[in-house]
Design a protein that fits this description.
single chain; 336 residues; alpha/beta; seven-stranded parallel beta sheet; 11 helices; binds nicotinamide-adenine-dinucleotide; binds UDP-4-deoxy-4-formamido-beta-L-arabinopyranose
Length: 336
């Protein structure tokens, strides 16, 4: 249970992968959850299992958060005291092909939600940002003070929204706004009942490895083995999704001591290569995961690892789950 006063939290995009896990963490900490989602990348029944697991009702509203009047109505009617804004389109490759859809959806959603909050006198806003804002970092691990420079339209939406929320926070001292820069979320709730279920071909490594493990695909294509890393494959900071979502609860509860705008990295502070992640899934499943080395994927970088010191010290938050555990939990969440 929470030690701070219970909040009623609107999670936009709450039917998605991270949102559904966030709902569990919020409820476990004693908060109430309201969700708005238009199901562009999720299913209407995604939160049924969360309600079963927690034995708690969640108010779930189908709608688009670009509808400012709807968001304001939901905030007022349900007594929302804080918003975690996750609703966004998130596929990097698609964002290069459809930049207007990405800038349109992601920027308009953020502005609409902030505007509705202001009208409804609701001032706590947590934003789902991404390590993608660091672009190709000068060095690893990356602190929040590192230079910013996203390299694709999706990443640019995160960078631009960070600028907007910083300015919004500076405009009125009632705002408490936090940007959480996620590294690479993997894994699932320990029940195995809440899955990452991307629509269409997975873009990210773990869902792709899961599709090979479950026999939906023949092999993993490993994008490059000639990077200057431990084994030549790309290194990322994979963070268990339950650790990640607990970081949101910590950020929310820190807001009673917060003035204005804050930024935190949410990562483990340790990297794993593509081959190490595949090995982790082999260990978790007892299967051999076939893979083939292909060329580098356009826009990929060699290494991206968080320095999570600031979140550790200021939020009192630590990761507690290993990558091996994330592989077990991802596997258990698959129908197999
Ligand atoms: P997801 O696609 O599973 O969830 C996003 C949800 O937002 C979906 O359910 C989708 O239907 C909904 N949505 C999109 N636009 C909407 C709109 N206009 N109105 C209402 N609902 C809308 O993605 P996720 O992995 O859960 O990511 C959640 C957030 O975290 C996103 O903002 C994403 O950019 C960010 N993020 C994700 C990762 C990652 O690797 N998964 C990493 C860094 C940041
Ligand atoms: C991880 C590693 C790939 C798939 C992306 C976004 C970032 C964030 C998280 C939202 C890389 C390799 C992958 C495959 C592979 N999302 N890979 N074969 O690229 O670090 O980050 O998702 O904010 O913005 O850019 O994650 O999971 O796609 O890739 O070899 O089939 O796995 O080259 O080294 P990435 P990823």
């Amino acid at each position: 249970m929470t030690t701070s006063a219970p909040e009623t939290v609107l999670v936009t995009g709450g039917a998605g992968y991270i949102g559904s896990h966030t709902a569990i963490a919020l409820i476990n900490a004693g908060h109430n959850v309201v969700v708005i989602d238009n199901y562009v990348n999720s299913k209407p029944d995604a939160l049924d299992v969360v309600q079963e697991l927690t034995g708690t009702d969640i108010v779930v509203i189908e709608g688009d958060v670009r509808d400012r009047a709807l968001v304001e109505k939901v905030i007022v009617e349900h007594g929302v005291t804080a918003v975690i804004h996750m609703a966004a389109l998130k596929a990097v490759g698609e964002s290069v092909e459809m930049p207007l859809e990405y800038y349109g959806n992601n920027l308009e959603s953020a502005i609409s939600v902030l505007d509705a909050m202001k009208a409804a006198n609701c001032w706590k806003f947590v934003f789902s940002s991404s390590a993608t804002v660091y672009g190709d970092p000068e060095s690893n691990p990356i602190p929040e003070t590192a230079s910013i420079g996203a390299t694709n339209p999706y990443g640019m939406t995160k960078e631009m929204i960070e600028v907007i929320i910083r300015d919004v926070a500076a405009s009125d001292d009632r705002w408490k706004i936090t940007s959480l820069r996620y590294f690479n979320p993997v894994g699932a709730h320990e029940s195995g009942q809440v899955a990452e279920a991307p629509v269409g071909r997975p873009n990210n490594l773990m869902p792709m490895v899961m599709e090979v493990a479950t026999g939906k695909r023949e092999k993993v294509m490993v994008f490059g083995d000639d990077y200057p890393t431990v084994d030549g494959t790309g290194v990322r900071d994979y963070i268990h999704v339950m650790d990640l979502v607990e970081g949101h609860v910590a950020a929310l509860e820190h807001m009673s001591d917060q003035d204005g705008y804050e930024v935190f990295n949410l990562g483990q502070g340790r990297g794993a290569s593509v081959l190490e992640l595949i090995a982790g899934v082999e260990k978790a499943t007892g299967l051999t995961i076939p893979y083939e080395v292909a060329g580098r994927r356009a826009g990929d970088i060699a290494e991206c690892v968080a320095d999570p010191t600031r979140a550790n010290e200021v939020l009192g938050w630590q990761t507690t789950r290993s990558i091996d555990q994330a592989c077990v939990d991802s596997w258990n969440s698959q129908a197999h």
